[in-house]
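ok new one. same drill as before - structure tokens go in, u give me an amino acid for every spot. 543 of them this time. try not to just spam alanines like last time pls lmao
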């Protein structure tokens, strides 16, 4: 043993020994061990290594036990991949090259329809099929929302989309009742949408069949519908401030998608040196500023609000309700901050989602000209060429509805929905879901399940028709989500999609520009699944 020890001693140079001694001194300093632990000068290196090994092993074991205890998986969580200490599954998520919803969907092959993992100590539970979503989102414990941490830096507060508990109940009830009171979703509202659609068609007609990127005009039209509801006004397609607001909104949706986790995990919001966090803060500030200016410009354009009058728009109704509650001394969650956020929520959710769906619709019509022709023939047969399509024509246009449904299924514009938060410990399918867990509904999985939609990647509107060509409502088409937090603009969005799409098909034929590549149906992956920028030509149809 001694000889082998000497052998080792001989083969190690003195600087190595110095380093070993230095490490030992350091360990002593750190552990506060007294001088009796000092190695006698005569001790040979083998013993030194022995010492280090035993102590390193002890230290390592203690460290491992502490880390294991801190980052242990609590019992009975839904199954899922284990991650790294501290970072959890973040490194694996960061390595994903393709769409994140598809990568999360792949986890279901191994772990089933309920998967959990953590990201920087934040537990995330992913729901991967329709039945589990239906069961989960019927529970009020799973119907909270996580805080958008970065917006809390720029303006503390919440609107209807991000509130939880009692504030959400009051904001949602107020929003739904007020929108209904303003006629939204009822046939009386049709006129507003048709008027805006005529402006959109005028804008498209100006291109005289030349190349057009439809993003801005479609967004402006859809946004004007929601702006007329909230602020009682519309904006010209050339209005530069409004153009900026739409640009900032698109950027915000793109960034939230790119750094979705960053938005919801508190620790990231504090890392303001990260470029994505910086950009998110900057975009949030710009959005708030422009929205604020637009909101308060109403007083110049329309005169001060008269609280005795019936409010003409959502903003007026909100201010009146706040004023009434204050006069009555009633406690309320309708505050200036929740008002500002609720306008932002309605404006953002009402613009981006519907206009993205319409852009997918145009792209599918250009990519499948035979389907476009069949839609146009159906509309001409029912509506004729002397007037524009109306809501009352809808029951006679099942194929048109089938096309819109198939676009919503395959376009999958909110593939991971909007995250929910667990507000109280609960159970789902026998698994423990702890308070604070983030709940993500993978709607992409529901819309591409081959047992429900054979050949799910094919665009086939016929899926929504029966043998007699009548429309079949499919329970598992859930673009607006399900449960207690289902989209509150669903009725408005359905009206807009139908009226704008049928009017465009009635007045134009869309095609790819001369010599362009065939349509690729490529997508950008933000929080919404939007088509990558594309160009088309709109040929006016002869009357
Ligand atoms: C095609 C268009 C639309 C789609 C696909 C869509 C989709 C969705 C989805 C998936 C959610 C989340 C549901 C959940 O949390 O489980 C949602 C929530 C919401 N949507 Fe929409 N939406 C659309 C249009 C609109 C419009 C036009 C408005 C404006 C009136 C709107 C306002 C909202 C609001 C305020 C929420 C939050 C509701 C809450 O948290 O209680 N959406 N939407």
């Amino acid at each position: 043993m001694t000889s082998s020890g000497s052998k080792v001693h001989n083969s190690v140079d003195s600087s190595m020994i110095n380093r070993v001694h230095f490490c030992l001194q350091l360990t002593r300093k750190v552990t506060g061990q007294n001088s009796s632990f000092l190695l006698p000068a005569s001790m040979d290196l083998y013993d030194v290594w022995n010492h280090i090994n035993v102590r390193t092993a002890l230290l390592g074991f203690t460290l491992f036990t502490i880390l294991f205890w801190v980052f242990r998986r609590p019992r009975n969580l839904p199954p899922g991949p284990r991650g790294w200490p501290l970072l959890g599954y973040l490194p694996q998520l960061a390595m994903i090259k393709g769409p994140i919803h598809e990568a999360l969907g792949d986890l279901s092959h191994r772990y089933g329809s309920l998967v959990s993992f953590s990201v920087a100590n934040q537990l995330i539970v992913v729901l991967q099929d329709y039945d589990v979503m239906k069961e989960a989102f019927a529970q009020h414990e799973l119907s909270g929302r996580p805080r958008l941490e970065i917006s809390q830096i720029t303006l503390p507060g919440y609107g209807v989309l991000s509130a939880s508990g009692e504030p959400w109940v009051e904001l949602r009830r107020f929003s739904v009742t007020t929108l209904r009171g303003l006629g939204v979703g009822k046939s009386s509202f049709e006129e507003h949408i048709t008027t805006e659609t005529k402006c959109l068609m005028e804008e498209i007609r100006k291109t005289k069949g030349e190349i057009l990127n439809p993003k801005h005009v479609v967004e402006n039209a859809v946004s004007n519908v929601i702006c007329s509801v909230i602020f009682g006004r519309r904006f010209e397609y050339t209005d530069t401030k409004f153009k900026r607001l739409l640009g900032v909104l698109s950027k915000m949706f793109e960034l939230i998608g790119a750094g979705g986790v960053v938005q919801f995990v508190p620790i990231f919001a504090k890392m303001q040196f990260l470029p994505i966090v910086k950009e998110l803060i900057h975009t949030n500030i710009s959005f708030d500023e422009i929205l604020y200016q637009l909101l308060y410009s109403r007083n110049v354009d329309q005169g001060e609000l008269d609280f005795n009058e019936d409010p003409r728009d959502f903003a007026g109704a909100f201010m009146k309700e706040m004023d009434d509650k204050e006069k009555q001394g009633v406690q309320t969650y309708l505050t200036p901050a929740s008002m500002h956020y609720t306008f932002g929520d309605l404006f953002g959710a009402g613009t981006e989602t519907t206009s993205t769906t319409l852009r997918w619709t145009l792209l599918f019509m250009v990519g499948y000209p035979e389907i476009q022709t069949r839609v146009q023939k159906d509309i001409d047969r029912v509506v004729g060429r002397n007037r524009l399509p109306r809501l009352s024509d809808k029951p006679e246009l099942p194929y048109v509805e089938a096309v819109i449904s198939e676009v919503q299924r395959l376009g999958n514009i909110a593939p991971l929905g909007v995250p929910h938060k667990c507000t109280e410990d609960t159970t789902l399918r026998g698994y423990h879901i702890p308070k604070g867990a983030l709940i993500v509904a993978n709607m992409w999985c529901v819309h591409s399940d081959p047992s429900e939609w054979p050949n799910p990647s094919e665009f086939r509107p016929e899926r929504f028709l029966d043998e007699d060509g009548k429309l079949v409502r499919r329970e598992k088409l859930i673009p607006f989500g399900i449960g207690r937090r289902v989209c509150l603009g669903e009725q408005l969005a359905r009206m807009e999609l139908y009226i704008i799409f049928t009017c465009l098909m009635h007045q134009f034929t869309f095609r790819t520009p001369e010599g362009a590549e065939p349509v690729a149906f490529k997508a950008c992956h933000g929080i919404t699944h939007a088509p990558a920028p594309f160009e088309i030509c709109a040929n006016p149809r002869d009357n």
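Residues 336-367 form the longest helix (32 residues). and btw The two ends are 103 Å apart (CA to CA).
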